[in-house]
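#struct-queue
[09:14] JT: dropping the first one here, sequence first, then the structure tokens:
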Amino acid sequence: MSPQTQDAPRAAQGPRAFRRVAGTTALRELCRDTDRQLIAAGVDYVAHRDAAELLVALASDAPDVVLTPAEPTGVELDALINTVHQWANVPVVVAIDAAATGNTDAARALDAGANALLPTPFTAEELRRCLMGLGLPSSPHAPAVIVGDLHIDTAAHMVSYAGVDVRLTHREFSMLHTIAARAPRLVSPQDLARQFSPDVDSEAGARAVRVMIGSIRAKLGAASERGLSPIETVRGVGYRVRVD
């Protein structure tokens, strides 16, 4: 069972339109801004290890847009674009290296059917403007992610568990949302570290992730009558939110 999404009331300070973008971890690292700044810009970025994993997760991610590198790993660009258009019927944005000389990626991407191009590295605001240029249908409400008793209202930036409101920091909220949105799949500590602590080495980043997961667990557990958190750890693999 995958997490449910539903329209949630928009907070007064929330983004005018919230878009879920499915992309790769490598492209996420090319964004100059933090996860919090992406959310503030109305972007819910779901990072996958590579293009092949992204395609497998199309149905469960239900993205508004797919963001891919010009040379996706494990699949040809034109095949990826055709698959996304046919399976998900959503636009594909191709990221290109704006600094590369003699770069033919732009022409190749457009010939392959790309809906738009995004020069890298990029900011949250540049990604937001790119999405606006796609002419997507109006969607003023951010989706709520619901996994069992866990309810994450992205627009209002609120979390409840077992009917009890849970106060999280911005970074805790973003990390929980990342894990819950991919349930029941596992998210590795390395992926979380790259997303939330991109400027530190992998070992230090993994330690920071463990500390933050511990804090989130404690807060969610305090909201449960049995003191249990919905976050599971699969030792040596990663984290996931239970869907039962």
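[09:21] JT: and here's the second one, same format:
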Amino acid sequence: MTDKILIIEDEQDIAELIAVHMHELGLTPDKCHTGKLGLAEALSQDYQLVILDVMLPDMSGLDICRQLREAKPLQAIMMLTSRSSETDRVLGLELGADDYMAKPFSVRELQARVRAQLRRVHSLQSIAVPSQVKAVTCIGKLMVDHQCHKVTYHDNSINLTSTEFELLSFLGKHPDQVFSRSQLLDSVWGYHHSGYEHTVNSHINRLRNKLEKDVTQPQIIQTVWGVGYKLNSAGVH
């Protein structure tokens, strides 16, 4: 069974171009040219990935992202934004988008990013856990269940998006080890392209909002200035 992709894009030429190149990957793309129709389709059907334009004629792609994320926490979402619209990119990531592409974009890069997203989706959907990987990581009061895709902290369940879970899971497997943004893009998102470090920053901020007592002085996910981020095992208590 092929993976299904939903393209919510009002510019029909761009939507058709994306669909053609999704077919090249062996995927089944559906297209919606308005936000309301796209949101209804995304909520009523099961798609492995939603490719969502920010600028739509009837409603903001940011609102669609927020509503879709609330209804389907594990839905993979990639946003399309104007290259000059850094605010939209950051807002989209803060609202729960897993990734973004700036227009105009390279078709080959788009395909690579879609493949990376689908690899993560398939990993999350897989029931079996490789024997060499521990099924559960426990660090202090933080527990990450890699098989059930569940996180608890002080016995409280923490609701994470699929990408937030993958990021925390990766950091949890390497406590106290510092990773640069480039390394995290490679390891968690499955690619690295210059200029997309905002993706990492936004997901780190969202994890902190869900885990830290005081996000202005993070004790769990810490910044090592000039280097990157680490999960501080001493702060998980």
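[09:30] RK: nice, looked through the second one.
[09:31] RK: The CA atoms of residues 15 and 191 lie 23 Å apart.
[09:31] JT: good to know. The chain has two domains: 4-125, 136-235.
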